[in-house]
Amino acid sequence: MSKLITCIWFANNDGEEAAKYYIDTFSSAPGNHSAKIGDITKSPKASEEVSGRPQGSVLTVECELDGTSFMFLNGGPVEQFKLNGATSYIIECETQEEIDYFWGKLSAVPEAEQCGWCTDKFGVTWQVTPRILDEMMRDPEKAEAVTKVFMPMKKLDLEAIRNAGK
Questions:
Q1: Helix, strand, coil % over all residues of the chain, rounded to 5
Q2: Final residue in a domain of this structure, among 78, 108, 123
């Protein structure tokens, strides 16, 4: 049986540092969040010439964040594999405390912040959102008012979104 795993290419060989950071971030989060480290693969001698990575250096780190499997690959600086905001990871939060926590841990590029989206110190883009937002957006009677409130925000304000959906 196959398993879908998100592989994130790190150009600056930050894969292991990123994995440790995300594991710490998710395992320390308020609410019902989980994180665990998986296998760490080292670069074999046979890959040195093509990859430019020395034998024994960390090639990949596997981890699981809130039940989603990731592999972080130290791929090196290849132009077509630069991280960008076209792919983001959504963290659904139940409380403002969770939103504040994840925002504080993951937002490192203030100019990239908009309506719950932020970019972390590794260049990975996250959406830190209240779980109820998706439900409210499916209700045509609430969607207009809710959208008007959250679109100008950077970090989302759960109480303001709830009030707009009343």
A1: 35, 25, 35
A2: 78
